[in-house]
Amino acid sequence: MIISTTPTLEGRPIRDYLGIVTGEVIVGANIFKDLFAGIRDIVGGRAGAYEGALRDARNTAFDELRAEAQRLGADAVVGVDIDYEVVGQAGSMLMVSVSGTAVRL
Known about the structure:
By secondary structure, this protein is an alpha+beta fold. The protein has one domain: Translation Initiation Factor IF3, CATH 3.30.110. Helices cover 31% and strands 40% of the residues. It has helices at 29-37, 48-71, and strands at residues 2-3, 16-27, 42-43, 46-47, 76-87, 93-104. The strands form two sheets. It has a four-stranded mixed β-sheet. A two-stranded antiparallel ribbon has the order 3-4. The longest helix is centred in the middle third of the chain and has 24 residues, at 48-71. The termini are close together. The mean pLDDT is 85.
């Protein structure tokens, strides 16, 4: 499955537009509390535990996007947008969402 932020794929004409597909993940406050406990892993101004949690959430969101596109019979998803938002009471959760257009090449 080709995933691209661009609206087209060079040399690969789009035959059918199948619709918008999405993937969302919300990481709750408990995960961040656990991460605070491991804050000692900050090296060179970077927090490895936070980066790992964000990476996992983003990968899961992309897995959902890919699965939805496959259910539609897509070969690719174009025009992909990645968003990170703080949600919940007092910003207690982080949402990672990805969306794009499923296409058949």
